[in-house]
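Hi all, posting the design record for the shared folder.

TITLE: backbone redesign
STEP: 1 of 1
STRUCTURE INPUT:
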């Protein structure tokens, strides 16, 4: 399967809106491979470094009852992920948006357990670090490993929010034991939900405000997120 080729209009719309959906980034067979590789990591969850692997809720949540366990830098622990079609095609698309020298930055995986009762709250990725003054553009590819609906926790975005300031964020519940950052400065009535069929992906920028609802279905909602950055050669 060839990588999607973005039209000029699609590229302009992406930079205008701060997000987009791509219907066919990869194949179902490739998603099965990714799922098996990530499942292997989730089986080793408690052996991986605790500062990189935790529930999106409580940092100490290593007791098997996680609601949204996250593995940061999954490709470091499972380099075969970089051989997948999704990785290859995401890099090709990233280079259409960010220039031909754009490179992979980091990745993470989020597993929303069935009926997990935990949203990923409204936030801008830049609130986790990075420079507020633009050093380089980033694009995150959010790749669900199955169909993603509003009810299972597909991505939702606030259009144009990447053009505004980095908002104030705080730990969920104003409680330091939580990893997840949240902003209250959001008009959620402007949200655009992006349901996807398996094989698709959403793309967003590091200041684009986004959210996923709790998984209200009886099956897990798995996602793998790849981040690419422009290379300014400086
Ligand atoms: O998958 C999710 O629930 C949230 C993903 C997210 O917030 C992100 O990739 O920045």
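Okay, here is what came back for every position:
SEQUENCE:
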């Amino acid at each position: 399967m060839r990588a999607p080729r973005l039209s000029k209009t699609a590229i302009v719309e992406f930079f205008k809106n701060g997000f987009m959906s791509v219907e066919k980034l990869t194949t179902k067979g490739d998603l099965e491979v990714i799922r098996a590789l990530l499942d292997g990591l989730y089986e080793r969850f408690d052996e991986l470094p605790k500062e990189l692997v935790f529930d999106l809720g409580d940092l100490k949540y290593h007791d098997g009852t996680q609601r949204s366990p996250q593995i940061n830098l999954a490709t470091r622990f499972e380099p075969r992920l970089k051989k997948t079609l999704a990785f290859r095609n995401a890099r090709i698309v990233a280079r259409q948006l960010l220039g031909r020298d754009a490179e992979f930055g980091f990745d993470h995986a989020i597993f929303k357990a069935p009926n997990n009762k935990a949203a990923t709250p409204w936030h801008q990725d830049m609130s986790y670090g990075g420079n507020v003054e633009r050093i380089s553009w980033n694009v995150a590819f959010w790749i669900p490993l199955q169909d993603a609906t509003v009810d299972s926790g597909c991505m939702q975005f606030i259009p144009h929010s990447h053009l505004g300031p980095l908002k104030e964020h705080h730990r969920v519940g104003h409680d330091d034991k939580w990893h997840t950052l949240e902003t209250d400065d959001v008009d959620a009535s402007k949200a655009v939900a992006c349901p996807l069929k398996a094989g698709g992906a959403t793309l967003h920028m590091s200041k684009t405000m986004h959210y996923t609802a709790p998984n209200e279905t009886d099956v897990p909602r798995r996602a793998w997120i790849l981040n690419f950055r422009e290379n300014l050669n400086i």
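COMMENT: The chain has four helices and 13 strands.
Let me know if anyone wants the other runs.
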